Amino acid sequence: MRQLNETTIIGRGPAGLLAASLIARRDEKCLIVSDNQGSLGLWSANFDFYSPQNTIRDPWGYIESFPIKISRTQWSNLWSIFSSILKDAKVELNPIPEHNLWTITCTGKPKSVFMVPKWQYVSSHLSEVIFIGFEGLADSMAALQCENYKNLTGSNSSYYQIPKPSQYSNSWGSLRWASYFDTDEAMKWLIPHLRKAVGGLDTTWPVLLPQVLGRRFVEKNLRLLRKVLRRPVFEYPLLSPSIGGLRVQDRWEWSLRQQGVGFLTGKVTGIAPGGLISLNDGRSWKTDRIITATGGVLGGGVEIDPYGKAYDSTNPTKTGLVKIEKDIQIQWESSPLEDLVITAGAQCINWNPNRDSNGGAMILATVAKGLGMTKGSRQNNEF
After folding, report:
1. How far apart are CA 323 and CA 329, in angstroms?
2. Are 257 and 231 in contact (CB under 8 A)?
3. pLDDT per position as a tens digit, 272-324
4. 130: CB partners within 8 A, 6+ apart
């Protein structure tokens, strides 16, 4: 058994990485343990605040209805901290907006978002754009995308489908496309097609390409395309695996390693009193604080607050073992281990990103609350 004087984070999705960043900024030791890649590859790198009806309404006006009560000043501070963390990781986000913005999906549907990396298209209003598709790339359906967008917005947009490059094979998925665009050869193939696509069209119309313009060099590629085409050029998100989310994860984890955060591959199977963590391969150690950021949906009616306190809706008086993701067992003593275990992210009670488009807010609020960054804020009775 090894002795550690640090925080152990279980999970390497956005909640786990954010918690690690905040802890590293305090010059405290931190270890991330995970047996899988994390959920960022399922995201399009959109960090939403609140938009239940998919509108660009002002999300700041609804913060009183959030499960965790945080003042407007605190929210502004959290979004600023989050933006600076990703900036340190070489991910530039669009400035913190006063209201949601529009992006466009791979099916041509406008979708409201709050903060996204600068490689992704966002706008405060729906206007003419040029959709570009790549033959052979799944979910790249420029003709359908353009038709749907026109019908939904009434805009006079355009589209162009680019034929496959000579190197293409049927095995290419979005990851292989992104690797191709990390080469100079790909840009030499793309530029002549784009010049043809935009010929004669208003130079204020942005060019929107699938989100595969490189896993490493997307900013370099976009700068070149904007210079050559002399017009705005952005990406639109595809379905998972999300290249945008993987870019964020790659750079974020690199930044954390530079700050001394450790990464350990392993499956946590138990958390016992005193901070004893056990892995399925027999490894174990003691830690000062545990953050469970394993995401997903809890089974058996169990819900957890940011301090790790568990609630069983089927039997409020039940004590004993609580299963997280049906894999991790937390052995509670007579009272919950509120000073030891913190829970952040999608496990937390009363947050529903699928319904309310509040995934970014959920991550910020639960991590900040668990780490004591929102002192003086109020919570609903469930907490």
Report:
1. 5
2. no
3. 777 888 898 999 999 988 888 877 544 334 555 665 565 554 554 443 334 44
4. 157, 158, 159, 160, 197, 198, 201, 205, 206, 207, 208
Let me know: does 303 contact 349? Beta carbons within 8 Å: yes
Return the number of other C-beta atoms located less than 10 Å from residue 199's C-beta. Answer: 8
As a whole number of angstroms, the distance between CA 375 and CA 102 comes to 33
Structure tokens at 301: 């009616």
- Burial label for 196, CB within 10 Å (0-12, 13-18, 19+), is exposed
Q: Are 79 and 96 in contact (CB under 8 A)?
A: yes
271 φ/ψ angles, rounded to the nearest 5 degrees: -130, 120
* Cα distance between residue 328 and residue 343, in whole Å: 13
Tokens of 342: 């913190």
Mean pLDDT of 63-77: 93
Q: What is the pTM assigned to this prediction?
A: 0.89
C-beta of residue 161 within 8 angstroms of C-beta of residue 189: no
